[in-house]
Structures are given as C-alpha cells and as structure tokens.
C-alpha cells in the first residue's frame, strides 16, 4: 500500500518502520525533520499525503491534528483514508472526520495503548472509530502495527474508548498507591498486601500487572526507579481529555476529576514530570493527612 505518515516521534517512527518492514511504501513527514530509514521524505504534510491510499497521523494533540488535516485533506486522493492514531479530544476527532467525509474521504480515529514498547514490537491495541469500510481498508495496517484493533463504532468512539479506559487506569492507580501507603503505615508488608489484594476484590491491572511497589509482583517501572513506562504527564494529558469530554457530555465524573487534580499537582508542582505514573506511590508514602 502507498502510505503517507505524518508525525514521526516516539510512537510514529517505530510504527512507520514496521509498515516499511512489511513491504509498504511509506512517505514520511515531521516538522522536526525526523526521518525513518526506508521511508521517502516529503517536504510537507500535503506532499506526504499526495497519492497515498492511507495517510496516518501520529501527532501531539487535537489542535495540531486539525491544522494538519486542513492541509492534507485537499491533497488526498479520492477515496483515500485518513487514519489518525494520535490521542486527541473527541470533538477534534469528530470535526476532522466530518471534514474528511465532506471531501469524499474516509477517516478513522484509532488511538493506541501499548506505548513506545508496543509501537516498536508491533503489539499496539487500536481503539477505532469510523465507518466499516474505512476500518476494512486499515485492518491490514492494524495487523502489522498492533496485535488487536477494536472497532468501537462511529467517528470519535475510538477516542472515547481510550479516554474512558485511561480514566479508570488513573483512578485505580491512585487508589492502589494510596492503599499501599496506608498498608505500610498500618504495618502490613508489601508482599502480604500484594498477595491478598491481587487475589481479592481490590485487584486491578494497576495492582496485578503493573504493581507500583518495587520488588513485589511482576516486573514493572517501580522496579526500575519509576522510569517510564507510561509517563505521569501522558496520564495527565489523558485525564484532561476525559474531563473535557465529560464536561461537553454533561457526565458526572468525580473520581476522574480528582485524579486529574492529583496528577496535575504531581506533574506541575511536584517531582512527577518524567517519572512513571505509578510513582504516585512514593508521593503518597512521603505525605501525611495534610
Ligand atoms: P512525540 O512528541 O514524540 O511525537 C509527535 C511528533 O509529531 C513529533 O516528532 C513532532 O515533531 C511531530 N509534529 C508536531 N506537529 C507536527 C506537524 N504540524 N506536522 C508534522 N509533524 C508534527 O509524541 P509521541 O509520544 O510519539 O505521541 C504521539 C501521540 O500518541 C500523542 O497523541 C500521544 O498522546 C499518543 N500516545 C503516546 C504514547 C506514548 O507512550 N508515547 C502512548 C499512547 C498514545
């Protein structure tokens, strides 16, 4: 397939590399001038999109996605598909899809989970919004870049699934960390805490698969000095998007709102920036009730 790839950062570059390794013809563009071995380099986003059957974007946020879409949609071939894999707000995803449809183009929002490791290994999970037809076009590419692609419904639903999942993740990670900190103060060993909770009703992915306490449970960023992993600032971004969506949809999300406040303080006022999001545990450990 002839593919345009716009945004070759931490995630985009390894995703593009996997498509090239699978034999696809990739033309890449990134404002930072980054290139990927084996990809043709375009001088602009529009040039990368010209003549492509699928144009993939992997960009920082919704405002940049809207700008790039405004530039590339007029350049795209009739019937081509814009496949946005960035994590952006639901409204931007839906606005871009509407503009694409008006131009006779397909559009999918397909944010990912799995991080940089998953991008490199080709084991991402894609949460996809858009038409069946566009999904079918992109499916072979999902199969190369990822291990799973879930079609969640019409445009915007991929982003909706992503931010709802990550709102649960942020809240459960905080709950797991504050419970560990309490258990420590009550004299419970971390091993006992893990053994009980991981097999009781408090279990979750945060406890069982990504335990925030070092030396306990499976290997996780806690065992590596809280080097990300999934950085606290990325969790902050996703919690911000979920609150933005909750506001727009008039949904009551008090735990998500509190998780956003805590991660904002952790990243902006404390030492959370550049640390894994599970480093909330040493944060709680260091604090008392006030
Ligand atoms: P990144 O900052 O490393 O990459 C973004 C790239 O986009 C940069 O190289 C930047 O130069 C480029 N860019 C910015 N504006 C551009 C423009 N107008 N035209 C062309 N290129 C432009 O970020 P990343 O970690 O690769 O994340 C990309 C997206 O994936 C984000 O939306 C992020 O939330 C999401 N995501 C990241 C992870 C992760 O672990 N890093 C996990 C899941 C989802």
From TrEMBL:
PROSITE patterns linked to this entry: 3_HYDROXYISOBUT_DH
Residue ranges of every copy of the 3-hydroxyisobutyrate dehydrogenase-like NAD-binding domain listed in the record: 156-281
Pfam families: NAD_binding_11, NAD_binding_2
Keywords: Branched-chain amino acid catabolism, NAD, Oxidoreductase
Stored InterPro entries: 3-OH-isobutyrate_DH-rel_CS, 6-PGluconate_DH-like_C_sf, 6PGD_dom2, 6PGDH_NADP-bd, HIBADH, HIBADH-like_NADP-bd, HIBADH-related, NAD(P)-bd_dom_sf
Pathway(s) annotated for this protein in UniProt: Amino-acid degradation; L-valine degradation
Oxidoreductase as UniProt keyword: yes
Molecular function terms from GO: 3-hydroxyisobutyrate dehydrogenase activity
Record domain 6-phosphogluconate dehydrogenase NADP-binding: where: 2-153
Keyword Protein transport annotated: no
Group of enzyme by EC: oxidoreductase
EC numbers on record: 1.1.1.31
Catalytic activity reported: 3-hydroxy-2-methylpropanoate + NAD(+) = 2-methyl-3-oxopropanoate + NADH + H(+)
Protein family (similarity comment): Belongs to the HIBADH-related family.
Annotated protein name in UniProt: 3-hydroxyisobutyrate dehydrogenase
């Amino acid at each position: 397939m002839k593919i345009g790839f716009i945004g070759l950062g931490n995630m985009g570059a390894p995703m593009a590399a996997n498509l090239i390794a699978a034999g696809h013809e990739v033309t890449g563009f990134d404002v930072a001038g980054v290139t990927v071995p084996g990809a043709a380099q375009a001088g602009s986003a529009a040039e990368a999109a010209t003549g492509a059957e699928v144009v993939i974007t992997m960009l920082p946020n919704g405002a940049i996605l809207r700008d790039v879409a405004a530039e590339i949609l007029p350049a795209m071939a009739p019937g081509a598909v814009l496949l946005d894999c960035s994590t952006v707000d639901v409204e931007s995803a839906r606005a871009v899809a509407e503009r694409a449809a008006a131009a006779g183009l397909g559009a999918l929002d397909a944010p990912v989970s799995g991080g940089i490791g998953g991008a490199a290994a080709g084991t991402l999970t894609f949460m996809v919004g858009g038409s069946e037809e566009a999904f079918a076009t992109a499916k072979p590419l999902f199969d190369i870049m990822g291990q799973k692609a879930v079609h969640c419904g019409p445009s915007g639903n991929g982003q909706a699934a992503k931010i709802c999942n990550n709102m649960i993740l942020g809240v459960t990670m905080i709950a797991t960390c504050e419970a560990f900190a309490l258990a420590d103060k009550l004299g419970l060993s971390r091993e006992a805490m893990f053994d009980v909770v991981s097999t009781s009703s408090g279990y979750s992915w945060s406890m069982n698969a990504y335990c925030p306490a070092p030396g306990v449970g499976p290997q996780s960023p806690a065992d590596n000095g809280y080097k990300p992993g999934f950085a606290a600032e990325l969790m902050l971004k996703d919690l911000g998007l979920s609150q933005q969506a909750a506001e727009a949809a008039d949904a009551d999300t008090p735990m998500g709102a509190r998780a956003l406040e805590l991660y904002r303080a952790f990243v902006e006022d404390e030492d959370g920036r550049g640390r894994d999001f599970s480093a909330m545990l040493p944060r709680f450990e260091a604090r008392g009730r006030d």
